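Quick start: load a record and inspect it. Here is ATP synthase subunit 4:
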Amino acid sequence: MASRFAVQSLRGSSFLLRRQATAIPRLAAVPSRQYSDASRPPPEQRANAIIESLPGNSLISKTGTVVLGTGVAAAAISQELYVVNEETIVLVGTAIMFTLLARILKEPYKEWTEGHINRIRNILNSTRKEHTQAVTARIDAVQQMKDVVDVTKGLFALSKETAKLEHEAFTQRQKAAVAAEVKTVLDSWVRYEQQEKESEQADLAKAVIERVTKSLTDAKNQQDILNNAIAEVEQLVKSKAI
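Running the structure step on this input writes:
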């Protein structure tokens, strides 16, 4: 009697499970449409996955576990050790429903988690790459600046030499300017002295000419000059020079 009731209950639960199984894909139709049939594992793979999920180390031990569990359940039901009631059916149906939901949502959730992980990994990789590039650029910049001290020393020495040359050039220009000014002053003094000498010579010549002219206007001087001239002529005649 208990086994018959259990069989009827299992039939009723299987009918409910079929309805729930047909309703669950409808609810999950939107996310399941994103995946093609090619992405679903084949029946052999599903069977292997179910077998692998069973306890045991070998196929014989897993088969023995299934047979033993089925025998214990049948014996418990037949001996009325366990009475199948509505709570059992609800429990089995709920377990089957959650199992189906878990199987249906497993792949989308797995792909979503993998996508999220890959996105985070890509962000971390890009950030690490950018950080590496920034550090490399900074290292290159520092390496380019390693000769700044030597270059600064060279520029300082060059600027010092340039300042020295500019000072010498300024000194030479000042000396040349002073020499030109001295030459100008000396030339002016030379011209002044020359003008003074010329003025003195002109005054002296004028005084001599005036004195000679004055002496020539004197009658005594004129007579002396005439007598001297006659004496010289007579001397020349005597000497037969003329």
